[in-house]
Amino acid sequence: MSASLFISSTPFDLALHRNKIAEAMSQGKPGSPALTVVQASPETGLAERLRMVRQAAAYVGVFGMVYGNVDAATGKSLVQLEYEAALAAGLPVLIYIMDEDEHLVLPKHVDTGTPALSLSELKSHLSQTQAVRFYESADDLVAKLENDLLRIFAPTAPLSAPTPVAVAVEGTKADPVAESVAGANEAPSGLTGTMASKRYALTPPRFAFFKEKVAHLFQREMPDAVLQDVIEYLLAGNTMSAASALRRGAGISLEDAIEEVRKTELVIVDTVQRHQAQTGAVK
Q1: Which DSSP string corresponds to 212-248?
Q2: Where do the structural domains in the chain lie, given as residue ranges?
Q3: Mean pLDDT value of segment 200-226
Q4: Which residues contact residue 126 at a Cβ distance below 8 angstroms, ignoring those fewer than 6 apart?
Q5: What are the pLDDT digits (tens) for 226-283?
Q6: 60 in helix, strand or coil?
Q7: Could you tell me the strand order of the sheet in which 3-8 lies?
Q8: Structural class in CATH, domain 3-153
Q9: How far apart are CA 84 and CA 54, in angstroms?
């Protein structure tokens, strides 16, 4: 009997993704690990969900733009509780987050208000604690998952390189946290350079604030000049320039730089949104 792979995601907005994973795993490609996909249905109770997680050989968390149904007792979504159960059980954890810049998504599948804030906080936490991968389509998700499963269950198998994808951060206004972001929409004098090199110039106190939030995300100690370039480009919504600056300053590949910039963006967006919620600031 093959081991089980627990797929955790919100069920309706990511139905195609869940089906594609199940279909790919059922084909049993040569060299692929023998794993049976298990996933909870919308009607599955919390206790049964957590039991399924604990009995799995590995956990796969797929996150889109919906936080999902919330457990009344904990105030957390079912998918978040499944993730926490996987951690508690010591399972291998694979995390995939939708690339908001590349993935097509219907408006009805995008949370707003309190659920959106909860999802943003969860994604920020995941980016800081897990080796997050970003997917731009259901097929891209399956390809990344298959490679990662080979890494976990067949370490000697060759892995293909991750696909680089660009992301962007929206300009937001909220003082003091998001005041530096406001220039992208409301204070043109704060922006410098052409569209290709658009950035928002941070004052020393604002740079120090954002540095404290994101410096630990990088795999190596980052010089302040490089980190400031990355943050200023991100605050202006110029993700590719941020990745290029990181590539040059850290001496890493562009693909690795893009992955690190994505994680940084999640934390910056969450920081700004939480400050907005606390102060009542309006975008």
Answers
A1: HHHGGGSSS---HHHHHHHHHHHHTT-HHHHHHHHHH
A2: 3-153, 182-279
A3: 86
A4: 61, 63, 83, 95, 97, 132, 266
A5: 898 888 888 877 777 888 888 888 888 877 888 888 888 888 878 877 777 776 654 4
A6: strand
A7: 35-38, 3-8, 58-63, 93-98, 133-135
A8: alpha beta
A9: 11
